[in-house]
Write a structure and sequence with these properties.
5-stranded antiparallel beta sheet; 5 strands; alpha+beta
Length: about 180
């Protein structure tokens, strides 16, 4: 499933200390084509249990989830939308609920075609507030700092908010995706 993805993109995702996932926009039902160990730890599911499935399987059937799904579907159906942030109720493999703050961005090749969704996740339910979000930022920032030379070549500026860091991580993933 990942054979068509650049090794540098896969390495970036697999080595990240924060939950990351890739979904295939050009396949029916946008299945996951890559997740990292942090994603597996967050959700309680192993890679083999999630690859090839849409993340919807993590969501309970509630009105709150239906609204989040609608927002995500609107994002996915709008080719002009580059990034979105969604609070999505999820269930871990053991049934434990959590609120997943999901940042989704399209990965586009220089040709302008985008066939992947890059997503980072943050467990809001376990968060005690800004301290945990700052720790998440720092972890994401470390992953980005590991790529500092590559980032500098593309004039990226790193900021402290989770959303901007996520967008920066997406930019790096885009660079890795399209060389």
């Amino acid at each position: 499933m990942t054979s068509h993805l650049p090794a540098s993109l896969l390495g970036y995702i697999r080595e990240a200390n924060i939950p990351l996932a890739l979904g295939a926009l050009d396949e029916p039902d946008e299945p996951l084509v890559e997740v990292n160990e942090a994603f597996c730890t967050l959700t309680g599911y192993g890679r083999d249990a999630v690859l090839g499935r849409n993340c919807r399987f993590l969501q309970p059937q509630t009105d709150e989830v239906r609204e989040a799904r609608k927002q995500m579907r609107d994002f996915l159906n709008d080719p002009e939308a580059e990034a979105g942030r969604f609070e999505v109720p999820n269930l871990r493999a053991d049934g434990t609920p959590f609120v997943n703050l999901v940042f989704m961005s399209r990965l586009k090749k220089r040709s302008g075609m985008g066939s992947l969704i890059f997503a980072s996740q943050f467990d809001l339910k376990a968060s005690k507030g800004m301290t945990d979000l700052k720790n998440y930022d720092e972890k994401l920032g470390k992953n980005i700092d590991d790529m500092a030379e590559l980032s500098a070549n593309y004039g990226l500026m790193m900021r402290q908010s989770a959303e901007l860091l996520s967008q920066s991580a997406t930019t790096i993933a885009n660079i890795r995706y399209d060389g």
